[in-house]
Design goal:
Number of helices: 17
Largest sheet: 8 strands, mixed
Strand order of the largest sheet: 3-2-1-4-5-6-7-8
CATH superfamily of the largest domain: NAD(P)-binding Rossmann-like Domain
Distance between the termini: 50 Å
Number of domains: 2
Oligomer: single chain
Length: 387
């Protein structure tokens, strides 16, 4: 790659060039660098913007999702006019507009065990901006196997975390979090929410760590987990150690080849995984239209809303009683064992977990509203807004 600079580039990067730790040599390193950003959402958006502005010579973005109006509260790379378009397309167009001097590659795909090796092969650093555990563990395992640096970030409500996982130089993500939580045990962004500015804070720290890694300056977050608490604006660092028994980077790893990785990451339908504790009966999943018909013909159903209080107070089904999933174990004794129960949440994930708990507690008839209150608002009552 040609790492000479035009006058326009010298002007563009002038504030970098006067920093002794960067200078011409450092800017050339940035120009030679290749970085892939996984996800163009809340975390990925600021990473893409700042890496493009910094002059990363080869910048790739992989995402398959479309922009939704609910993204705009935190994904400030996008505008209202972009709703419905692919995130990867809009993100790459904005990055190219910001810095036409760099090469930007868009990968319109959902990252999977089948395509991860091909997508990662041309990049030396992977920035993980994903918003789900499946992708997070896949990125980690692939980076270890392929020898790629993994700049990790995650957010939840008011909390964020950042680390750098460098194969052969410290722990990997699985050393710290050996296995994903059970499906439904941790609320996703749509269910738990996130303070809009927090992904911007965490994403810019990820971009900073990426640039530091390329320039070999400062102290990287390798072997450290930076915890961000936006409520009290505190930053706390935890030291991490490699786990010799880690199934990915330990002394006797389970994943030794791409075939092992593919087997380890067989796609799992979340609703199926959540439903393992329920009896194999078609009646356990109840469509919104079916529930509407039953409610019209009977008043003997016990509707249980397992969302959080603010969600329930905003809107709920008529006559539904409120037992938040977080408090359900302490409230099981209040639910009659012979009741005809239908549980629901926003999307159907939390309520599936609740249904399993109710069944294990001896409640005889437990069904889950498939698709949750969101499905109800689409298929039955379009006037109902769901938080």
């Amino acid at each position: 790659m040609d790492t000479s600079f035009s006058q326009d580039e010298l002007d563009r990067y002038s504030r970098h060039l006067v920093i002794p730790e960067v200078g011409i040599d450092g800017q050339q390193k940035l120009k030679r660098a290749s970085v892939l950003v996984v996800g163009a959402g809340g975390l990925g958006a600021p990473v893409i913007q700042y890496l493009a502005a910094a002059g990363i010579g080869k910048l790739g973005v992989v995402d398959f999702d479309k922009i939704d109006s609910s993204n705009l509260q935190r994904q400030v790379l996008f505008s209202t006019a972009d709703v419905g378009q692919l995130k990867v397309d809009v993100a790459c167009e904005r990055a190219s507009s910001l810095n036409p001097e760099i090469a930007i590659y868009r990968h319109r795909a959902k990252l999977s065990s089948e395509n991860v090796a091909q997508l990662f092969q041309d990049y030396s650093i992977i920035v993980d901006g994903s918003d789900n555990f499946e992708t997070r563990y896949l990125v980690n395992d692939a980076c270890v196997l392929l020898g790629k640096t993994n700049v990790h970030g995650a957010v939840h409500r008011f909390d964020g975390q950042i680390s750098v996982f460098s194969p052969g130089n410290g722990p990997c993500y699985r050393c710290v979090f050996s296995e994903p939580p059970e499906p439904g045990a941790v609320l996703n962004c749509a269910e738990a929410g996130v303070l809009g500015v927090l992904p911007g804070i965490v994403g810019t720290i990820q971009a900073t760590e990426c640039i530091k890694n390329i320039l070999s300056i400062g102290v990287p977050l390798i072997g450290k987990l930076l915890l961000v608490d936006a409520l009290d604006m505190s930053f706390r660092t935890i030291n991490l150690k490699r786990n010799p028994k880690c199934t990915t980077c330990g002394d006797t790893p389970e994943i030794k080849s791409m075939q092992d990785l593919i087997v380890k990451h067989v796609p799992v339908d979340r609703s199926c995984a959540l439903n393992q504790g329920l009896q194999n009966s078609a009646g356990k999943q109840l469509a919104a239209t079916e529930l509407a018909e039953e409610l019209a013909n009977s008043n003997k159903l016990l509707l249980i809303d397992v969302r959080e209080a603010n969600e329930y107070n905003y809107s709920h089904l008529q006559n539904a009683i409120h037992f938040p999933l977080s408090n359900l174990p302490q409230s099981l004794h209040e639910i009659p064992k012979d009741a005809n129960v239908v549980v629901y949440c926003k999307s159907g994930a939390r309520s599936l977990k609740a249904a399993e708990m109710l069944q294990q507690a001896g409640v005889r008839s437990v069904r889950n509203l498939n698709g949750g209150l969101s499905a109800w608002s689409r298929q039955v009552d379009t006037s109902l807004s769901v938080l």
